């Protein structure tokens, strides 16, 4: 190809007006678009980011101001160029960029006018893209103008960058009679999204984000404020020469939360959506929840309510962007084939642990069965019959057996039929459904509202075990096992 003559090559410039319309439809939301801009601020060493967006109908603007190192005029012009940096170039580990498109594509997805004012070493530079002008002239015409109001916003900063969004046609619609209310809702969603996406930066004090003058508090999906003794965890795993780190946790049973705490811990999406993998790149969260399409044993891992408590943290570096198929929005990550096996094994273990914890009735003082101890269950383990699950009561449980033995044959038969009827008609699916749709998802403990009756039942059960030859201590262990499941 290097031997081609010049007359054998035809150079075709892309049509600006058509390209712009395509770039506007990549699929950002307001919150993912602003998060993309914050990535640039973090890369520029910003410690404080102020987002200001007073509602003013069709004239509403969004201001994003950081105190980073700013840009020289030449750097600013290059930053305004589409595809300013190749995705294949080696980046600093702290660089949260990807394709050199984020500033432009994120902005164009939400509005039609982007102004950037930046101060670097005391020198202020400005540039502006106006999509209406680009479409009108069908040329990439970059404006040097910026409103004096924008310049004043950097006056008190030694360095920094201001991004201004105007003509917010994708955010504030003139057709919307509830535009202000809907805009405020979007700002609330933005606050929540940033609290999750950048929680590590906010937690360690490296970054402050303010929206409308109010700080964004971090939301950590692994609930560090909850006692570690209430959680289960797997030892960390390192793959790909330490470039991929995996750590799995099972959150505490729902009965250890107040209703408000449990709702908050499910974020705005709910526990079932938030179960699964959390992929971090350079401390920045890319994806929250889901099982990455992993298919151990040929079965797709689904997000089902009995796995709600399982969450897995995966840290990767920007060296692995290609392998993980990181998209422009930095909101999707797909694990490479060479890691799927190990990720699947970790996921399978966490799901099993989450299921066991979720199924536990969750008394405030749980009983921990001793390893290797043989316990007699009141309910037999879930079994399969014709490919379906079913439950059954254990007729050899001491209290049940004593009652059966005390009856004549006819009444014993009737009692057995009653016990089987109870087991056969237990509304297991309804119980699971009601638990999954409940905000608190709490299941009551045995005799929760009748403690005196609980003590009577406990004593009766203890005595029945002791008549089987167990010591009082052994009988108490068996009964605690029964009442805490």
Structure overview:
- The chain is an alpha+beta fold and 485 residues long.
- The chain has 16 helices and 15 strands.
- A hairpin with a 2-residue loop joins strand 3 and strand 4.
- Helix 1 runs antiparallel to helix 5, helix 12 runs antiparallel to helix 13 and helix 15 crosses helix 16.
- About 4% of the residues have low confidence.
Q: Whole-Å distance between the termini?
A: 72 Å
Classify the helix fraction into a percent range. Answer: 25-40%
Q: What is the SS-derived class?
A: alpha+beta
Mean pLDDT: 86
Number of helices: 16
How many β-strand runs? 15
Low-confidence stretches: 86-93, 95-100, 362-367
In spatial order, strands of the major sheet run 4-3-5-2-1-6-7
* Broad shape: elongated
Strand content: 15-25%
Largest sheet geometry: 7 strands, mixed
Summarize the helices and strands and which ones pair or pack.
Layout: H1 16-23, H2 30-43, E1 48-52, E2 62-66, H3 73-80, H4 102-108, E3 113-120, E4 123-130, H5 131-137, H6 148-152, E5 160-166, H7 179-197, H8 199-203, E6 208-211, E7 214-215, E8 232-233, E9 237-239, E10 244-250, H9 259-265, H10 271-274, E11 276-281, E12 284-288, E13 310-316, H11 337-359, E14 383-385, E15 388-390, H12 398-406, H13 409-424, H14 428-437, H15 451-466, H16 472-483
Parallel strand pairs: 1-6, 11-13
Antiparallel strand pairs: 1-2, 2-5, 3-4, 3-5, 6-7, 8-10, 9-10, 10-13, 11-12, 14-15
Helix pairs in contact: 1-5, 2-4, 2-7, 12-13, 15-16
């Amino acid at each position: 190809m290097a031997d081609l003559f010049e007359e054998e090559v035809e150079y075709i410039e892309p049509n600006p007006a058509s390209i712009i319309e395509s770039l506007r439809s990549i699929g950002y939301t307001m919150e993912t678009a602003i998060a993309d801009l914050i990535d640039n601020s973090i890369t520029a060493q910003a410690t404080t980011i102020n987002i200001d967006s007073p509602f003013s109908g069709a004239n509403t603007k969004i201001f994003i101001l950081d105190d980073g190192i700013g840009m020289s005029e030449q750097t600013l012009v290059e930053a305004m160029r589409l595809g300013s940096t190749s995705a294949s170039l080696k980046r600093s580990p702290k660089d949260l960029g990807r394709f050199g498109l984020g500033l432009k594509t994120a902005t164009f997805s939400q509005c039609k006018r982007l102004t950037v004012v930046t101060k670097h070493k005391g020198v202020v530079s400005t540039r502006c893209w106006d999509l209406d002008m680009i479409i009108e002239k069908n040329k990439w015409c970059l404006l040097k103008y910026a409103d004096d109001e924008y310049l004043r916003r950097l006056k008190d900063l030694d360095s920094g960058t201001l991004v201004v969004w105007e003509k917010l046609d994708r955010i504030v619609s003139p057709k919307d009679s509830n535009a202000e209310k809907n805009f405020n809702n979007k700002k609330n969603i933005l606050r929540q999204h940033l609290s999750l996406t950048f929680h590590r930066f906010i937690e360690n004090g490296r970054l402050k984000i303010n929206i409308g003058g109010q700080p964004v508090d971090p939301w950590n999906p692994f609930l560090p404020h909850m006692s570690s003794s209430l959680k289960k965890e797997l030892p960390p795993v390192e793959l790909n020469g330490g470039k991929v780190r995996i750590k799995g946790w099972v959150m505490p049973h729902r009965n250890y939360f107040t209703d408000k705490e449990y709702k908050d811990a499910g974020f705005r999406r709910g526990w079932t959506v938030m179960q699964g993998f959390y992929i971090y790149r350079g401390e920045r969260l890319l994806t929250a929840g889901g099982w990455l399409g992993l298919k151990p044993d040929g079965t797709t891992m689904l997000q089902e309510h009995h796995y709600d408590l399982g969450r897995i943290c995966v840290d990767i570096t920007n060296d692995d962007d290609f392998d993980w198929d990181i998209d422009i929005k930095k909101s999707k990550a797909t694990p490479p084939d060479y890691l799927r096996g190990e990720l699947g094994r970790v996921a399978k273990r966490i799901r099993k642990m989450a299921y066991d914890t979720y199924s536990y009735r969750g008394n405030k003082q749980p009983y921990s069965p001793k390893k290797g101890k043989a316990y007699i269950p009141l309910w037999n383990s879930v079994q399969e019959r014709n490919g379906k699950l079913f439950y059954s009561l254990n007729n050899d449980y001491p209290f049940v057996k004593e009652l059966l033995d005390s009856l004549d044959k006819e009444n014993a038969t009737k009692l057995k039929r009653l016990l089987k009827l109870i087991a056969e008609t237990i509304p297991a699916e309804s119980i699971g459904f009601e638990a999954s749709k409940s905000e608190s998802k709490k299941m009551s403990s045995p005799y929760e509202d009748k403690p005196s009756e609980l003590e009577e039942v406990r004593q009766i059960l203890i005595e029945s075990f002791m008549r089987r030859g167990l010591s009082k201590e052994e009988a108490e262990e068996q009964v605690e096992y029964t009442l805490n499941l």
